[in-house]
Amino acid sequence: STLAKIANGIADTLITRIAQVALKERRRLVIALRETPLSSIALENALKLSREGAIIAPICPPHYMGAESVEKIIEGYVDKVLNLLGVDTGNGWRHEELE
Question: What residues does 30 pair with on adjacent strands?
Answer without folding.
Answer: 55
